[in-house]
Structure formats: C-alpha cells, structure tokens
Amino acid sequence: MFKKIFQLYKIARKLGTSGAIETLNEIYKIPIYIKIFFDVISLGSQKKIQNFSKSPGEKLCDALEGMGTTFIKLGQFLATRPDIIGEDLAKDLEKLQDKLPAFRTSVSKEILKKELGEKQLINISNLSEPIAAASISQVHTATIKVDGSNVDVAVKILRPEIEKLFNEELDALMFLAYIVESLIAKTRRLKLIEVVHLLREITNIEMDLRFEAAAANELYENTKNDKGFNVPKIYWNYTSKKVLTLEKVKGISIREKDTLEKSGINLKSLGENLIQHFLRQAVRDGFFHGDMHQGNLFVDGQGNIIPVDFGIMGRLDKNNKKYLAEILFGFIQRDYVKVAEVHFQAGLVPRETSKEEFAQALRSVGEPIFGQTIKDISGGNLLAQLFEITEKFNMSTQPQLLLLQKTMVVVEGVARKLYPETNIWEVSKPVLEGWIRKTKSPEANINQAIDVSKEILKKIPDFPNFMDRANYALQLISEGKLNLSLKNDKGLEIEKMKLKNLRNNIFLGIFSVVIVMLLVF
Ligand SMILES: Nc1ncnc2c1ncn2[C@@H]1O[C@H](COP(=O)(O)OP(=O)(O)O)[C@@H](O)[C@H]1O
Ligand SMILES: [Mg+2]
C-alpha cells in the first residue's frame, strides 16, 4: 500500500511540475483546493516554464510529452474521444508527438536474447542502431537466417520495463481519478475512471507485439491477391510478446514525392490506388489499417504500396458494412428520405425524432457537397458531417465507424499530397458501387436494404440500448484490439471495487498512524 501511495505522490508531482494542471485550469477551471494541492505537492521542484504564446491544447501536448509513455498514450486516447473532452481539445491532442529517446542497442540485444533464446540470437546478425523510437517501442534492422538463407528484416522491440511502469502509473492515475470524482461531482461527466480503465485495456494489448503480428498477418492474408498492395511478411520464429520481426521494406517513403517521381512512379495512379485499396479492405474484408499516415507507408520500385505499423486496425462487422453501404449509396443517389429511413429502421435515432427534420438535416449535408465540383468531394468529410448530424440527433457514432472516417480523411489527404487534383469521388465510386452491387442482388434496391434493417431490429429488440452498453467494447474493437464486451464491464467493476478497498486501506493506514502517534506521544 505504501508503494501505491508513493506512486500516487510521484504521479501527482509529475502532474504538478509538468504545467498540465495550469493548462487544464485554463480549460476547465479546476477548484482552487485542487490547484493548491498540486502546488504543495510539487514544492521544491522546478516547475516547467510555460510558453504563453501557445494555445492551451498545445501546452497540454508539451506537458504530456514531457511526462512519458503513460501520458502520451492518455493524450492519444483522449484525442479519439471528442465526446468527452470536446472537439477543439481533441484536435490539439492529435498533434501529440509519440517520440521518446531511443534505448541502447546493447539493451535490445539483451531483450532479444531473453525473448528468443540464445540459440535463435545466433541467427540474427547486423543488428543496426535504432532507426525509429516511439513511446512504446523502437525499431532496428537486422539479417536473420530462414531455411539457410539470409533475409533482411525490421525488428520492433518493446521498451524495457514499459508494461510495469505503465501499469504502476495507471494504478496511481486510477486512484487519482477516483479521488477527484469522489470530491468533485461535476467531474463525473468526464468519466475519468472509465477513461483510465479503457486506456489500460487498449494499451496493454498494444504492449503485446503478437497482436500486431497477428493483425499484419490477417491483412497479409486478405490482400495477398490484390495487385499493388504488399504487406510485409511476419517471421513468427523471431516474434514474441516483446519482439516483432517482419520483412524489411525496400522502398521509398510515400512522403518523398520527388524521389518517387524520379524513380518513374506515376503519382496520380499511386494516390488513386491508395484510396481504392483502403476502401476495398474496409468494405470487402471489414478489416483496415487504422493508422495510414505518411510515416507508415512505403512504395517500391514497381509502385506497389507497402504499409507498416499494424498497431491500430479497424474492424467493421456485417451490420456496420451494410449501414455504411446504404448511407453512402443513399447519398450518391441524393435520396435523403431513404437514408433517414435506414437510420430509423435500424433504431439508430431515437423514436421521437422527426423523420422530416432528420432527412432535412441530411440534405443540408449532402446538397452543398454535391454542389461542389465533383473532384472536391471527400468521402471522409462527407461521413464526418453525417456523424455530426446524427450526433445532433442523439445517435452516438460507433467508434469503429469513427475510426474509418478518420482514416479515410488521412488516406485522402495522403493521395492529395501526391496529386492535388485527385478526384476522390470518381476514384472511390467504382469500389463502392462494385461492392454494393455484389452485396445486393441485381434487382435489389434501397427498399430492400430497409427490410434488412428491420430484420436486424427484430433480432435485437433493444438495439439502441445494446449499442450504448457495448460502447466501451466498441472502442476497443475499433482498434482491432478486443473481442466483445461484457467481460470489460466486469473488469471495470472489479477495478472500482479495488479502488474502494484501497481507499478504505488508506483510511485505515492513516487511522493506525494517528493511534500509534497518540500512544507514543
Ligand atoms: N518492415 C519495416 N521495414 C523498414 N522500416 C520499417 C519497418 N517497420 C518499421 N519501419 C520503420 O520504423 C518506423 C517505426 O515503425 P512503426 O511500426 O511505424 O512503429 P510506431 O508504432 O512506433 O510508429 C517506421 O516509420 C519505419 O520508418
Ligand atoms: Mg508508425
């Protein structure tokens, strides 16, 4: 227990000295006694000087980056939850840099030896200095022996002790969240305990590289017959919880437009292919790379796209795919009443909502978009606006659809950086139409889609309620990290019980100290 109190003290001190509390105060108006508490606890240490020209969000990013892995992850997680912290702050937190200094290559060697065994270590040669270092892991290159021949690989290695540190810090944070929620009723809206609990669930999975290996493998299997998209191969004999070994990418970063052009790559087709591959994976397989920024994409000499970093994956189930197809198809046909109908039939919008008003709101999203020159239409933005509308009508967006929408915006952005004139709608249309045609029988139309939605409703009578309950789990699933759901809630209950116990123990502890002191003096 004393260890826990000490952890709590360390975390509180970290928070106090980082400048995070001052920044949070600018945003949320923290009660004065909490501020004083943090001021007292960080007495005697150098407080971080704040840069006054920065916005509160930027200052918060600086503070979180300075506090290490746990807080970087917390910030990244909150960036995906505008429903909790608001749009503006979430946007600012997206800029959080996931970087930490690299650890020594000799340490990496030790980890390799421990994880893979001395025998296997002999088969690894040319281990390079780290080529990239982030908050959870770092990457080296190396050569391994496979069936007697040499293969060039990238080796991702978890930071030493990261899991222990993370969980200890989270324990303390969890307790801090509990104290704050108990003391200040209005902070309950921020769901602090739930946030910390979810963060633990998600990140603990990220700290097992076998999950990333499995995700890479699944994407590899799904796309092995797709021309132009090559997922690196995983070497399972050189992979463990803390080590991920995969084929080394021999390509040019998609960021290096000039180099790509000089090697004769057609940037226009490259951008188009990227959009189409991404969309196809989302709608055909219901499994997509959820982190497709430029740093994670490479291109080989033949113009093949090669992704890396399979830590965040998105999964769409059958119903989600159907929902997506129907609304996109409805939008393409500019049939807003039908789109509204689909939402109603699936029970996604509260019953008392006016259908006409909802359709009207949908029209207000669709029409201006179709009023633009067709090349400016963005699928990602269309979905973003649609979700904004549905949220206004009290329908909470499922996190995996949100991840899809966000990734869509990123993918379209990468394509437009390669070729600014990319006509996203024209490029997306064949994939969407082809898929919709396949999903529905030739004579099928949107009316049938509504019938299908009715069927879903019949099977799950309390669908909206169910969605609400499953919300936590969906967040995890959206990142490809967990299977459904109730288990989680149990986890959270257990966590809360532990907190109560801890609180009682601490009271008991303080009480005993007082008694002892009374007896002694
Ligand atoms: N298979 C690979 N081949 C070559 N370079 C790689 C490979 N995998 C990762 N890298 C390099 O290491 C960097 C970090 O790896 P990544 O998997 O993206 O880790 P993180 O989750 O830290 O972003 C990548 O941006 C890329 O430059
Ligand atoms: Mg990366």
Q: Can you describe this structure?
A:
With 521 residues, the protein is of the alpha+beta class. It folds into four domains: 1-97, no CATH class; 99-248, no CATH class; 313-478, no CATH class; 485-521. It is 61% helix and 8% strand. The chain has helices at 2-18, 20-28, 32-41, 56-66, 69-79, 82-85, 87-93, 105-116, 118-121, 162-183, 192-206, 209-223, 257-262, 267-285, 318-332, 336-345, 355-371, 379-392, 399-418, 424-439, 446-459, 463-469, 471-478, 486-520, and strands at residues 124-125, 132-133, 137-146, 149-158, 243-247, 252-253, 287-289, 297-299, 305-307, 313-315. The longest helix is centred in the last third of the chain and has 35 residues, at 486-520. The structure holds adenosine-5'-diphosphate (ADP) and magnesium ion (MG).
Keywords:
five-stranded antiparallel sheet, 24 helices, globular, binds magnesium ion, single chain, three-stranded antiparallel sheet, alpha+beta
Short description:
The protein has helices at residues 2-18, 20-28, 32-41, 56-66, 69-79, 82-85, 87-93, 105-116, 118-121, 162-183, 192-206, 209-223, 257-262, 267-285, 318-332, 336-345, 355-371, 379-392, 399-418, 424-439, 446-459, 463-469, 471-478, 486-520, and strands spanning 124-125, 132-133, 137-146, 149-158, 243-247, 252-253, 287-289, 297-299, 305-307, 313-315. The protein has 521 residues and is α+β, with helices and mostly antiparallel strands.
